[in-house]
Amino acid sequence: MGDRRAKTVLYDALAEAAKALANGRRAELVDVLAQGERSVEELAEEIDQTVANTSQHLQRLLKAGLVTSRRDGTRIYYSLSSPVVGTLWRTMRQAAELHVAELDSLASDYLGDRSKLNTVTRDQLKARLRQGDVVVLDVRPEPEFTAGHIRGAISVPPQDLKSRLGEIPDGADVVAYCRGPYCVYADDAVRLLTRRGINAARLEDGFPEWAAAQLPVARSR
Amino acid sequence: MGDRRAKTVLYDALAEAAKALANGRRAELVDVLAQGERSVEELAEEIDQTVANTSQHLQRLLKAGLVTSRRDGTRIYYSLSSPVVGTLWRTMRQAAELHVAELDSLASDYLGDRSKLNTVTRDQLKARLRQGDVVVLDVRPEPEFTAGHIRGAISVPPQDLKSRLGEIPDGADVVAYCRGPYCVYADDAVRLLTRRGINAARLEDGFPEWAAAQLPVARSR
DNA sequence: AATCAGTTCAAGAGATTGCTTGATTAACAC
DNA sequence: GTGTTAATCAAGCAATCTCTTGAACTGATT
């Protein structure tokens, strides 16, 4: 015991968890799965890859124990195997944000200029929810809202927002949120609402971070 | 904005942090660096690799922003660039422990059978330190003790323990700790002490976890 | 039993990674 | 200046990874 070979094997095994996340497409998969379980086909669509390739990535995550799968009829649904995996992904993101200088510019290449978007922190939103003077929009696809959402939020999937603007009371303050800091839905929603003269802001991050912070959540049905 | 190419680039960049940790030798490096800064040569010795190879791994960590370096004379010292990196490593370990079934057996291949070793948790040790009825031994190499240690601990580097057994008061309860859950020093120390009839236990993990839990630490000079 | 949708498996090309070896650079002592 | 020590760089080979393509498998439905 205490010998080099065993140490190598042990640390190689520990590094397997990192290897599983060490790919942009698999990172995207984990990011989506943090919202709730998904079928292979849906996941393939989310990450713009073939089903075969997505399946292989999922096998890799499965082998590392980061996700689990269950069959329902002809479909197979994948989900994160524990909240620790979500924490791991968030911590990794945080490390990258802190230490990779170019990340900001890559983020705005994808998300567009955020400097003009109003932002509220989790704590601010929590306080305003308690006061009850804010309309909170969950702008993720509906199944993700069903799987879990901020208590008091209304589900308005991205493609429905335009046609449902009328539901927002005059003069209301709106906060939109989606999957996390690198998700475009809330940004797009805030831009649209602002253009229509509605006072709107984006939650600084998304539902998984809200839930991880032990803030009040709800689940449909 | 919101297009696939930019999203790919962004998530690839986020995955860089994982790639940096996605290698057993680099994981070992981070594990050691969590104790404090080290020179390339020392690190090479710790991970049983050539200096050239160690240097390349360090470059990789540097490029990902996980470590920083400074020159002092002819030596270059590396250290973790922030506490987040330590958290990342611990979270990764935790994920592997939870989800990789074989990890237990790999750990005991390296560390030996731990079932007969007494263990105390951080909270237990905290309470006993407050009562003052415990001798705490830091069995890491001396520079790591100097860089930071559990308040009230005594530095007894691994190779010195045998010759300094006389310093331990008769009938004392001893707790030994080292770098973390996969470090052999504390295990070896507890085995030695127990064989000599001294009541000894191992702290469940090491100094970085103690410090991360905001428990009382001290620094020499 | 036959068919179908959803998923996984298998094989291969091109890129990346990990370790080795030998040369090069940087700081310091003389 | 020369010599020494510490670290990095560069090139090369074997192993691994990523994506593609096409075939094979698995339940559900007919």
Structure description:
Two copies of one chain form a homodimer. Chain A has helices at 4-21, 24-33, 40-46, 51-63, 83-99, 103-111, 122-131, 142-147, 184-195, 207-212, and strands at 38-39, 67-72, 75-80, 119-120, 135-138, 149-150, 154-155, 173-177, 199-203, 217-218. The model of chain A has no long low-confidence stretch (mean pLDDT 93). Chain A is an alpha/beta fold and 221 residues long. Chain A starts with a helix and ends with a strand. In chain A, strands 4-9-8-5-7 form a five-stranded parallel β-sheet. A three-stranded antiparallel β-sheet of chain A has the order 1-3-2. The longest helix of chain A is centred in the first third of the chain and has 18 residues, at 4-21. In chain A, a hairpin with a 2-residue loop joins strand 2 and strand 3 (75-80). In chain A, helix 3 packs across helix 4. Chain B binds a DNA duplex (30 and 30 nucleotides) through helix 4.
Strand order, biggest sheet of chain A?
4-9-8-5-7
Number of strands of chain A: 10
Major sheet attributes of chain A? 5 strands, parallel
Tell me the helix content of chain A: 40-55%
Protein chain pair with the most extensive contact, residues per chain? A-B, 58 and 58 residues
Please state the CA-atom Rg of chain A, rounded to the nearest Å: 19 Å
H/E order of the elements of chain A? HHEHHEEHHEHEHEEEHEHE
Q: Distance between termini of chain A?
A: 53 Å
Shape of chain A from CA axes? globular
Unreliable runs of chain A: none
- Helix-and-strand structural type of chain A: alpha/beta
Report the portion of residues of chain A in β strands: 15-25%
The protein's oligomeric status is homodimer
What's the mean pLDDT score of chain A? 93
Instruction: Give the count of helical stretches of chain A.
Output: 10
